[in-house]
Amino acid sequence: MLLPVLLTLASLVFITIYWNVSYTGSQLFMKVRADLGVAQGVILEQLHDQEQVISQVQSAWQLKSLLSAQDSHNVAINRLLEKSREDLGLDFLRMLTLEQVMREPRLAKLMPVEGERARSGIQVLGKPELADLGPVLARRAEMPILSTPMSATTTGGMESRGMVMRSLLKVKATSGEVVGYLDGGVLLNRNQTLVDSIRDLLYAPGTLPQGALGTVTLFLDSVRISTNVPGSREGEQRAIGSLVSDQVRMKVLDKGQVWIDRAFVYDDWYISAYAPLYDVDGKRIGMLYTGFTEAPFIHNYLLNILELGSILMVVLSLSGLAVYKGATGLLQPLERIHAVVRAMQEGKERRIGNLGLDPDNELSQLGRQFDRMLDLLQQRNREIKAAAEQLEFKVEERTRSLKMRTRELKENLKLLEETRAQMVTNEKLVALGELTAGIAHEINNPTAVILGNMELMKFELGDRAEAVEEEIELVLQQVQRIKAIIQSLLQYARPGDFDAPLERQPINPIVEEMRVLVRHSIEKRAIDVALDPQASAEVVVNRQQLLQVLINLVINASHAMEERGQIRVSTRDWLDDQGQVKGVKMAVSDDGCGIDPELLPRIFDPFFTTRKTGTGLGLALSYGIIRRFGGQIEVDSTPGVGTTFTISLPKEAPSEEAETQSISLRGLHG
């Protein structure tokens, strides 16, 4: 019952806090954005005012009278300009001719065009240019560059350039002829008057919370040249020469965007606004900053949240106490009902009984109805339990019968597939045996004649046979290859004619002998054969025939690999479901090109090969040998990953009536 009150009050707390933070935060960013706009307007107004005060000098009677004199006195003009500069608060003011203006490229940028009286703007001048305006200005512009915690590290150095607000006005004689130009302006480096006047305008007393500090800064590139941000180092009243943070520099100076967000200013977090400053050429030369410290506002946030939380906690406590007192009479019967429900869930037989309330009370009626419902439920449970026991017995009986029939069906299907595969293989062998016998008879006689005549030819030619010895050897090699193919074909087609005795023996020595025999064949390819012999059981095999199978698989693996790699040959005991030793499993794995899925079902067919020099009988013979041992051979291949041939040999020799093991092909889909 207290939960809705708690949720409502908690929601009010979070909504109020969210609204307070979100609204106040947006107001702060709106204020600092407005402050930045006012500061930009003040700088533009300052440029306009500068034009106005210099125009007063241009239109002064003393200057006009000196210029209209028969012999102009430069000394008197310069004295008048110096006095006017001091009276008007300018840092420089001088009289130039058109030729002098055109000799200075930066000054020429401010040349008023036809119809203009004057032109003003902000420029960055180097140390020599400042020295031409006045040696004092060059010394005043210099300042050491100081790094800040959020700025790029600096190894020191001096900033000797100066940022000036400059105006160039035409000076006309009484006849209306332009006789020169007035060049005047203010150096902004260390100019406290401008930034302090903007600060006083923006952050007058009462505009910020107590303890908050409003500041204004002018940047030359990323260096503070004029600011009222207080310095933290000894002897520093203002953070002159310090660098802006990297985050602000990249957004404002590099990208030319306005920054309205919180930022780390020198040594504290401020609600800040930065805008790029452009010179008369439209080039970004610095930044204008306005902002105020963040900590007093956060303090006010936390204080408001604490006050609001305290008030809501008091309201929550009073509301909870009132709800609890009003619900006591309702909760006790409900607790008793709940206790009965929990006991029933635990399997105990309990009833609500008399609640001590008026018989017409809703809870009293509910208790009676609930007890009757429990009685009916108990009776139904007994009936359901009896029916469930009977149903479970029938389901178990039907399931057992279904499992038995399913197992018989699977065994029959498996037997059918194996029989069909055996029939196809036997038909192939019969047809191949008949064909091979005829081919062997027809080919062996010509090959014997060819061999005899070639030997006779070499004998008759004598020393002259050296000229064609390479051709003779090639013919002999090809004839021997024909005889080897016929021999392999006969062995595959009539394995009974080539039966070798089977003996019980360990597998690991045969595997190690295989590596010795194939070492010479694959060492030119920089391929290594790694052994992992872990089998301990003995099996009934013919050593030479098993060596033939292993050598064939390793040679095939070497052809499937590139120039370098490793072939892994492992053995392990073959265990049945009860953990008893059933035989031995051998695996030959490579990291070669793999076998395409569409070619995988054909790899054990006679004469099927993907190599130009192969006969296609190696794997067919290997399959026949392993089948004679009563074992099976499986292949698992993934194109581009590699191939694994697994040979499973039983530890007991197969009988003559044993069924031929089928080939299991896995990995047909990669």
TrEMBL record:
Keywords: Cell membrane, Coiled coil, Kinase, Membrane, Phosphoprotein, Transferase, Transmembrane, Transmembrane helix
Gene Ontology MF, one: phosphorelay sensor kinase activity
Membrane topology of this protein: Multi-pass membrane protein
Domain Histidine kinase: 438-653
CDD domains linked to this entry: HisKA (cd00082)
SMART domains in UniProt: HATPase_c, HisKA
Cell compartments where the protein resides: Cell membrane
Gene3D superfamilies to which the protein is assigned, alphabetical: 1.10.287.130, Histidine kinase-like ATPase, C-terminal domain, LuxQ periplasmic domain, N-terminal subdomain
Protein's name in the database: histidine kinase
Organism annotation: Ferrimonas sediminicola
GO cellular component: plasma membrane
